[in-house]
Amino acid sequence: MDIFRLIQDIKTHLKLSFDEVDKWFGKDKTILNYQPSNGGWTVQQILEHIYLTNFYLLILIEKGSKKAMRNYLDLDLNLEIKNYSFNQEKFEKIGEYGAFQWMRPEHMEPKGELNLTEIRSLVSQQYHQCLHYLDLMKNGEGLLCKTTMTVNELGKINVYEYIYFLSLHAQRHVTQMKNNELEIYNNP
């Protein structure tokens, strides 16, 4: 496994996902506040949900990165890299809106307590946090800690995969926001 290629691919995915999310903050109020016919969230609520989910995932990513760096002292990183293979297929469904059912925890549901400017700033900070962890674990150390991910039965995933999950989650909701916007234009 080329761990440096994996890290670079995750950085590229993060950039694309966060750039896509950022575009939605500039949409007009009609799009931001449109309540879809299926009773789902507005774009503004989706943006808040992305922030909240990132917030909680980054807690796990931070703990995982610290543990991975500690494990570096006791585990054979070269052996871990040699034996690692990234199963991208098992992650792809995470990025597809509606691909599976999952009830998110209540603390990840938007409550309307932050304005759009605050959310945008926080999401931008979260992007930079992800890059920081990837830079911190630039030699493959992120493989040295695994944590269980219950969403779509992913099981034990390493810190890099958690960051990739975070990026895919944002991608999933970009599709949801596009669906909201399309509904506005198709049902004037």
TrEMBL record:
Coiled coil: none annotated. Gene3D superfamilies: dinb family like domain. This is DinB family protein. InterPro entries: DinB-like, DinB/YfiT-like. Residues 32-177 form the DinB-like domain. Signal peptide: none annotated. SUPFAM superfamilies: DinB/YfiT-like putative metalloenzymes.
